[in-house]
Amino acid sequence: MSWSFALSPPFSSLPPAPGSVSASKTPFPPLRLSWLIWGLGASLYFMSFYQRVAPAVMTDLLMSDFQIGAAALGNFSAFYFYSYVAMQVPTGMLADHWGPRRLLTAGAVLAAVGTIFFAMANTVHLANIGRLLIGGSVAVAWVTLMKLATHWFPPRMFAFVTGIGLLIGVTGAVTAGAPLRLLADVLGWREVMGILGLSCLAVGAAIWVIVRDDPTERGYASYGPVPGSTAKASSGMLQGLARIFRYRNTLLLTVAQGGMVGTVLAFGGLWGVPFLETRYALSPLAAAALNSTIMIVWALSGPLLGFFSDRLGTRKRLYVSASCAALVCWSFALLMPALPLALFIIAAMIGAGACGVVIVGFAFAKESVPSHLSGTASGVCNMGAMSGPMILQLAAGWLLDRHWQGEMLHGARLYDVFAFQMAFVPMVAWLSITAGLALLMRETHCRPPRETS
């Protein structure tokens, strides 16, 4: 077996996917065009991550401004995930039927409306509505990105491209770390959110003008299924939803992904900064910087693990190994008493890097069902992934309030280290479930199955 890791040979001259449009007469699109089309969709995913983790560095500002505790703040942050999760199955089915361009454009416009509404809210109830609009609108980004990748890139690039997508998303999360805190301190958090809303409008306009669902609309051959091969999907979206659960991995991955994504985003997306301030007496800016670094490691590991998985032609072995590593490292980082900062950083970085295997999980889910059901399967898998932070952020907030000792500072509640450790127990529990489910998954060898009768 060759272990050469040069990107050009495996990604530049791949044969067309089975069932794809033949390249004998019509050329496939140049990679620069594929990256442009896909990259515009990824810009909305960038903004979705920015919105997702923004409350993490504004916990004190939000708790003081809206006069709320940890449970209410966890619920406020989770409003984003309520609509995000609810939209995943409809998004997957609509991506199969309507196409990414219309979904991405509509998502960007609605995200702008929700962001501006959130920025102008004067009560937590109105702010919750804004978060609900934001989550539901940007929910279209990830599944449509995977749909675009299927049509615009060679099949062996799929896990690598989706890994780059996660990297772009987490870059948004990093921008919503220390840089957002600085901007919020200078301009005010409402003003920063208003600027983001206008940026979403600009992204929507660019997507509508430039993005196309399939290379054939630009005169190139497509890497996706030929037009007639998706006819079976037209029999009905609900029938497609029922069919994907005939395949074992769909349910296993839907639950397993939630443990990986939930732990990283419940920690890095909301409770990591106040935990680091309390446990290690870091300043808000230093805690935000360390929190962002953990998110960066998660993002960088995604493309790397996806690339290795593509090259090795296996999904299960890597997923099992990474889920076990994530369980051990996050348990050590979050629950070990009197853990020095240096050891926490090492454990959290390795744990976050192992959680980057969610990229392999998305490819795993897509390949576990027939090609024409890939959008629906991706939506269901992402619904499970985003259920993780939705549930774990709420659970952590509830447990923090249960263990609150009554301390306050500038109108915001203060929680001790023990309260945070109790709040993190559900994260470790879900990671345990993820590791167990990984052992039950069926290897796909990077190829989708034939439709069952």
Task: Assign the CATH topology.
Answer: Growth Hormone, Chain: A
Low-confidence stretches: 1-23, 227-235
> Helix share of residues?
over 70%
Q: Look at the structure and name the CATH superfamily.
A: MFS general substrate transporter like domains
Q: Strand portion, in percent?
A: under 5%
Number of helices: 18
Tell me the number of strands: 2
The biggest beta sheet reads: 2 strands, antiparallel
Name the structural class: mainly alpha
CATH class: Mainly Alpha
Mean pLDDT: 84
Rg on CA atoms, Å? 21 Å
Shape: globular
Query: How many domain modules?
Result: 1
User: Between the first and last Cα atoms, what is the distance in angstroms?
Assistant: 36 Å
The CATH architecture can be named as: Up-down Bundle
Order of helices and strands: HHHHHHHHHHHHHHHHHEEH
Largest sheet, spatial ordering of strands: 1-2
Description of the structure:
With about 450 residues, this protein is an all-alpha fold. It has a single domain, classed as Growth Hormone, Chain: A. Helix content is about 75%, strand content about 0%. The chain is built from 18 helices and two strands. Strand 1 and strand 2 (about 410-415) form a beta hairpin. It is globular and about 70 Å long. The protein starts with 7 loop residues before the first helix and ends in a 13-residue tail after the last helix.
Notable traits:
453 residues, mainly alpha, Growth Hormone, Chain: A, two-stranded antiparallel sheet, 18 helices, disordered N terminus
